Amino acid sequence: MSPVGRQMQNRRFGFYLLYTVIAALGMIIATSVAAAQVADGPWMNSKLSPEERADMVLKQLTLDEKLALLHGNGMAHVPQWQMPLSQLTNGGAGYVEGVKRLGIPPLVISDAGYGVRDSGANGRYSTAMPSSLGAAASWDQDSACEFGTVIGQELRAQGFNMTLGGGVDLAREPRNGRSFEYAGEDPLLAGTVVGNLMKCEQAQHVVGDIKHYVMNDQETGRFFVNSVISKRAMQESDLLAFHIAISIANPGAVMCSYNRINGDFGCENSYTLRDVLEQEWGFRGFVISDWGGTHSTEKASAAGLDQEQPMADFFGPKLKEAVEAGRVPMSEIDDHARRVLYAEFLSGIVDDPPQKSVVDVEKGFEVAQRVEEKSIVLLKNSPTVLPINPSRVHTIAMIGGHADVGMISGGGSAQVDPPGGNAIMPPGKGATIWQKPVWFPTSPLEALQTVLPNAKIDFDPGTDPKSAANLAKSADLAIVFAYQCLAEDMDVPSLSLPDNQDALIEQVAAANPHTIVVLETGTAVTMPWIDKVAGVVEAWYAGSSGHKALANVFVGDVNPAGKLPLSFPKSEADLPHPDAPKIPSESRHAGDVADSGAPTADASAHAGYAVHYDEGPEVGYKWYEAQNKKPLFPFGFGLSYTTYAYSGLSVDSTARTARFTVKNTGKRTGTEIAQVYGRLPKGSDESFKRLAGWKRITLAPGESQIVTIAIDDRVLKTFDEEKNAWNLRPGKYQVLAGSSSDNTPLIASLAVR
């Protein structure tokens, strides 16, 4: 840091210190007057509604106490984000003062995308669940609930009472470095999975969070990119996903995003915050900014931002001065503070604050394994390769991916620390710790050897394709582990596997026709070798017990049932935006925020950088159908070790349900995810199908089951911008049922009058 910068930081710190001392003096005086109120205050009656309790507390607060609820207090481990109370963050992401004299606890906040962040760095332990994208591949609300329950319990055990998880942004840009934190390309699937995850996480008495609201669909230029999209298209896609998630989870908080949306930053966008989130949807919790994502005081406050994080640059002294000068009405401050208080009562952290305890490690392992077993997607399988037959397979060549020692995880603020540290030391000096590939010590080799004790398994690192091919040639079966590193604050340049892995797979497959590829990826990948391998298994980022789950699938102890939550394109040329996101050279300057990593740097210098989502609501499979393109693997696709047949679709237009029969026509018990899609009436300007419901059903060999699935008409409605209203137009809607978005053999009609 330069001397000038250090001087400015010292001045700011001194200003915050003075502000904190003054506020503390006010609190001491107030405490001496009303210390007895804590136990006897009527707001401590848990039989009252969160709204009633919040209103009661609000009437007791001074202006300084209200303002203290509206901003963070820095991060202990980040030098540029320091305030006098930063040491109280518990090693987490942030700290918000409570009101001790009234029994209102502080918010102690942690990142927790797929597990509690920085546990290792803080001398603790947390479970890594499979990535959120992997959990979405299970299409299972119960798995999502288990996922959230474990994280909520482990947050509390570490002393946190608020989570920063719940990513719902759609996979419009599959090269997005945070794709693994989200739940795919469909609003109904993403909203349902993440909504159930966060509902069960908040049920553990932590304040829940849904993020990053909204259109935060790429990381390139994330602090300033302008996401340009029509209101109708946004309502029918990304906003719909958030609405579904919020309606299920009823979270205490929603995190607004860094990016601009049609010109205004996400954290000062009156359309998305005030008009949609608060007024149309009736959201009662508070809007929390992404870290450093606040850009103004009066505009942000009026637009609906309730809490600035992690500092008080705009919602501290500046906000108090604006109130006292009459530029911000007290009604706005009361609304912000009431929402924070409501979230605290809603989540239960007032009545049941966290007590530090020992994490239930075994439970975490068990849940992580169950979720991963449901999330693994079998993409290709010749009849003779999977499941592995021990009577035929005596020698296995395991190649690449550091599969002898571990499995890769997702990076950035979602990163979970592996016990004992990174299982490998990644080569190169270019990657920062923030984006460094991290392998959990979950060895597929050891797990497979455990379930195949009589097989001889040899490992080759794959760094020399010729050596790997030689090993494969001498084995009954070759398994190549391929990985893709994703992390926050980066997008991948392409969907190709990095580090020459495509060439490795080509050579191994040429040497052994019985080659299986295991993909450890955070998004879709292209597969130029797909016709040359016998099997492909998508394991995602597999979590703390991923190796055991994968081994069980390999030997058939678990019949894979996962289905893709996003389409896999044949090439980037098939995407709505074929070229990878890039910041135009004319937008760059010395000290660019993309280089400095400072969200509040001079974003105005990049005001012209925009991504135009001209595809509108045609995200993923909807785009491919509208463009008459075939993806490599479609949304909703996934194979099994058995087969299924669909028949007899009927639709009840009054009850809006679809009814049909699914039969297991194979020789193994399996779970099928039966899917129902809808298509708007003829004459509509949106002819693509859209997911309208699904059901997981488990069938024994030869067993049939009549399945009834409710048709969710939210996905069949169109948004009228002029009337600012949704419309379910009269007519005959086509209803389709089948095993994936491009395999819907059953067709019937739904009449809407």
TrEMBL record:
Biased segments, Basic and acidic residues type: 571-592
Positions of the UniProt region annotated as Disordered: 567-601
InterPro entries, A to Z: Cellulose_deg_GH3, Fn3-like, GH, Glyco_hydro_3_C, Glyco_hydro_3_C_sf, Glyco_hydro_3_N, Glyco_hydro_3_N_sf, Ig-like_fold
The Fibronectin type III-like domain, residue ranges: 672-741
Signal peptide: none
SMART domains assigned to the protein according to its UniProt record, in alphabetical order: Fn3_like
Origin superkingdom: Bacteria
Annotated keywords: Hydrolase
GO MF annotation terms: hydrolase activity, hydrolyzing O-glycosyl compounds
GO biological process: carbohydrate metabolic process
Family named by the database record: Belongs to the glycosyl hydrolase 3 family.
Annotated protein name in UniProt: Beta-glucosidase
